[in-house]
């Protein structure tokens, strides 16, 4: 079976580069959480200031209401919920196979597989084998919230409600109150998404004659971000003061956008960015056997982390070809539900 990707608008190279950079940072964080702090003391906090917020922002750049709620909901189900379900089931099933194979290498009493993992997203915050997929649920909810605000409120009221929703989410975080299906993360992530939408509305995506000089401004800002950044982990409800939660990421994202905009197509990284959804959905499962292999080699932690990252990204790159060829409708390369999808709102 040969699948073809539905043609669309030309891709923007620097957006793919930002996506690629973001997924690289996410994978490395899951490889070794302390890797960046071993390079510089506050580097991980500086990267956290835009790592996940940037994904909300990039999605917000391309927000549109389409032809109404039917088209909008169909697009978001096809692009977010279908991949979420597909990768969740696939990764749980793959992990089961890995556990069975490990019986030949470790003592049987160490082998544990939780069969309820297939339905964990319905009732748990943290899942056993597909934790990174939480973001797809959160992003789907962010899109729905913002669509509803755009549909029923005037522009000035939309911004007021975005602020109120984010404050409510922030208070939930402070009291460690977790809402089902990561809805609290959607509340906190909403302003980052809206920032992307505002960038688009004000023409930031369009080429400007001064774009090539933006990196000059970015250098001192990155240095400042490094020193003021504090831990931000939306999934784990770790946040600084409200103003820092949005002030620092807004500056970091805007600075990164300015630094990347003059770039053209960067091989490999732009490719990873274009298919970052597939890497997001598969890297956690790929990591397990790769980590098992390198952790038994007896090398230093930094060496193990670097090799694990390289091998994981190499396997994920090969997986991209497999998924876009054989499973395009499950990986947002083609529509799963067609135009016959109908939804109505009052």
Let me know the largest β-sheet. none
Instruction: Kindly estimate the percentage of residues that lie in beta strands according to DSSP.
Output: under 5%
Question: What is the end-to-end distance?
Answer: 42 Å
Uncertain stretches of 5 or more adjacent residues = 1-7
**Average of pLDDT:** 87
Tally of DSSP β-strands: 0
Tally of individual helices: 13
What is the element string, with H for helices and E for strands? Answer: HHHHHHHHHHHHH
Rounded Rg: 20 Å
Name the structural class.
mainly alpha
Shape: globular
Helix percent reads 55-70%
Question: What features would you describe in this structure?
Answer:
The chain is 63% helix and 0% strand. It has helices at 13-31, 35-39, 43-48, 51-61, 69-102, 134-152, 155-174, 183-201, 214-228, 242-260, 269-274, 276-295, 301-326. Helix 5 runs antiparallel to helix 6, helix 7 (155-174) packs antiparallel against helix 8 and helix 9 packs antiparallel against helix 10 (242-260). It is mostly helical. The protein has 13 helices and no strands.
Summarize the structure.
By secondary structure, the protein is an all-alpha fold. The protein is built from 13 helices and no strands.
């Amino acid at each position: 079976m040969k699948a073809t990707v539905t043609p669309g608008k030309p891709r923007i190279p620097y957006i793919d580069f930002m996506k690629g950079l973001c997924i690289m940072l996410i994978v490395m964080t899951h490889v070794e959480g302390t890797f960046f702090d071993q390079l510089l003391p506050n580097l991980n906090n500086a990267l956290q200031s835009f790592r996940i917020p940037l994904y909300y922002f990039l999605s917000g750049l391309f927000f549109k209401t389409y032809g109404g709620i039917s088209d909008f909901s169909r697009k978001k189900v096809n692009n977010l919920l279908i991949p979420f379900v597909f990768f969740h089931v696939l990764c749980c099933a793959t992990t089961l196979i890995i556990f069975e194979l490990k019986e030949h290498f470790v003592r049987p009493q160490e082998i544990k597989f939780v069969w309820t993992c297939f339905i964990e997203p319905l009732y748990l915050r943290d899942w056993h084998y597909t934790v990174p997929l939480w973001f797809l649920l959160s992003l789907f909810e962010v899109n729905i919230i913002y669509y509803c605000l755009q549909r029923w409120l005037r522009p000035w009221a939309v911004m007021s409600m975005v602020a109120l929703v984010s404050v409510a989410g922030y208070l939930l975080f402070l009291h460690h109150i977790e809402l089902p299906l990561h809805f609290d993360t959607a509340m906190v992530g909403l302003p980052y998404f809206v920032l992307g939408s505002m960038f688009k509305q004000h023409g930031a995506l369009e080429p400007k004659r001064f774009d090539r000089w933006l990196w000059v401004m970015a250098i001192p800002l990155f240095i400042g971000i490094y020193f003021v950044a504090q831990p931000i982990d939306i999934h784990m409800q770790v946040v600084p003061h409200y103003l820092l939660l949005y002030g620092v990421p807004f500056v970091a994202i805007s600075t990164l956008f300015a630094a990347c905009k003059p770039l053209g197509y960067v091989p490999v990284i732009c490719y990873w960015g274009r298919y970052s959804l597939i890497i997001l959905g598969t890297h956690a499962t790929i990591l397990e056997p790769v980590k098992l292999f390198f952790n038994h080699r007896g090398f230093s932690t930094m060496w193990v982390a670097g090799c694990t990252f390289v091998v994981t990204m190499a396997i994920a790159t090969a997986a991209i070809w497999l998924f876009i060829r054989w499973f395009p409708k499950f990986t947002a390369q083609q529509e799963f539900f067609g135009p016959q999808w109908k939804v109505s709102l009052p």
